[in-house]
Predict the 3D structure of the following.
Amino acid sequence: MYLQTVFFFFLPGLGFCYSIVNGPANVTVLAGSEARFNCTVSVGWVILIWLSNGNPVLTVISSQGAVETSDRFTSQNYTSSNGFTSELIIHKTQLRDSGKIECSTQQTSESSFAFLSVQVNGSLFIKNSTLTVTENKTVEIVCEALGWFPAPDITWMTNDSFIDKSRYVTQQSQGSNDLHNALSILTLTPMDTEILTCLADIEALPKPQNATVTVILVNSTI
């Protein structure tokens, strides 16, 4: 009876010893930077596999550590009382890396996944850094964003205040290599000399990229 009790205790335990405690979380990064994902498994794990868009990119074996097949996919490992954490590091991220990142335990086929979003900040410019305008004259100022992914959100500021969106129009277009362009045209009648700033923003940027133009107001002459 004692042997039967011991056998019964350990057999069902095999199904629970190798569970994923905490899976990876979604990450958004700029192209060229690192992306990091953590996966924590409970004590008793044997093999952990990382997949990118369904393709295995790195394997971690409890008895020997990480098996790396590419310099772009490496890992760091951490062991604690709660279990084992594998951190997948994707180096020099590219647009094609965007998608599903998954960690899987081989012995139970349990998996947990998150999504990687790789974004690109392109160029932003206003053709002239200064613009001279006579009073009571309406002008159009063009701000151009080239080579972004996704298409950036464009806003305008005058000195330290945001300009109402009704005063400018922004058009987006498809560029090369799956990138996006945007053209924003601000229409205004300056009342004084002022500094205008065009801002382009995407989620991965810590702060918007900007381009400025100084509008110099001069008196009209007869």
